[in-house]
Amino acid sequence: MTEINHRRADHPIHSIFLERWSPRAFTGEEIGEKDLLALFEAARWAPSASNLQPWRFVYARHGTEHFARLLSTLDEGNQRWAKNASALVIILSKTHRVTSTGELRPAYTHAFDTGASWFALALQTQLAGWHAHAMAGVDREKAMQVLGVPEHYRVEAAVAIGRIADPSTLPGDLREREKPSQRKPVSELVFEGRFTGE
Amino acid sequence: MTEINHRRADHPIHSIFLERWSPRAFTGEEIGEKDLLALFEAARWAPSASNLQPWRFVYARHGTEHFARLLSTLDEGNQRWAKNASALVIILSKTHRVTSTGELRPAYTHAFDTGASWFALALQTQLAGWHAHAMAGVDREKAMQVLGVPEHYRVEAAVAIGRIADPSTLPGDLREREKPSQRKPVSELVFEGRFTGE
To answer: For chain B: N or C, fewer Cβ within 10 A?
Structure first.
């Protein structure tokens, strides 16, 4: 079957799913605003419950006044390498929806739908010759403050976007981990009729 | 710019993002088990926090004993058309992770990461000549029972997968809605430096 990036697909799939991965070695070069917005264009077309489109993105491009501020919301371990990203993005989801009677109700799938949008962003980024690396390691309270995020929004993740650089540019411990990760076999993830996992 | 399915991209993106949509008119024909598992193969390679891979999928193919059981967990409005799917899928996420010291801790991004995996499934489905339609309208407690899902898992969504059929096969109210939906403009979703949405 398809083998790319030392990854082996057990069933035939489009190569983009194996090609996409999350490096840490970035060149730090500038990304044009138009080039960046084109990546969000793909994210925009993701599906969502009742087409609510709960995803929101706050970005900072390398070389702008905003970059250091967004970088400061990441965990220190992530700042070490994400400082060389061409752009940083904080992904937010809208946690509530307004009903037809004007009531504010929790939106059950806000994080799930926003994850779909994130993957569209990740794929288009890869297709455009860039790489995207999402991080759960972000100080979410600080990000809410620094970005001016009102209530009823949730910080889902941060993302570093950039051109891939040689792994030798990374600190030693990260250099060793700079390769596409593997996955669990389908048999641990997919079940017929009933859930029989652990 | 790219225009597909009456959808217009404001920035250049790969056509698959516009081509993918969620129809309700399905033919009800059988899907081979191998063909179905190949769709989950793409879902498997999605990114997740610490590579935890929190996504799980329970499926039932049309014509098997499991199909009616999965169908019964959907809202009645969805059962009307999803009964003609070639396969139904319940998407679960693992809500907790085990720490290095053996402690059970909530996994912040379980729904978000599972949403990414769902979008990989949706795209591969589209690329393989099928269509996928996710539904938030599922009785989640019933699905947990019927599928034998243990605690520390969450029902995220249900999905109908099938070959697209003529809209005339749908009940009148659904027939009128049988077209790709539009999206908010990028300016309502993407912000530089600070969140200035509503």
So the answer is: C
